Amino acid sequence: MNTKYWFVFDITAVGSLSNAEDIALTTSDSEDAGAASGWSIGDASLYRNWNANSWSSDNDYNIQIQINGTANPAPTLSITAPGDAAEGDADTRDLTFTV
Prior knowledge:
Blueprint (H helix, E strand, L loop, with lengths): L24 E2 L19 E2 L8 E2 L4 E2 L36
Antiparallel strand pairs: 1-4, 2-3
């Protein structure tokens, strides 16, 4: 299953994303060679000009971002039946475990 995330850069004053301080655009669709397996960033973007009411699509320019994080370890579950559940003959026993 793929999860989509959106990053929203909102320019709240007169201007545009291309001249906003500390934000740069690139024409490259390259991704980091050291990226985690199975992760990818799409090559499409939407933008809304300052004081506009609708969004437009622009696939010519991308905002280059860096995402840092660590992978969570896979969950483990260890279940041991109570001692009295293993006793007896071939009868069926219903056990309820709360995790």
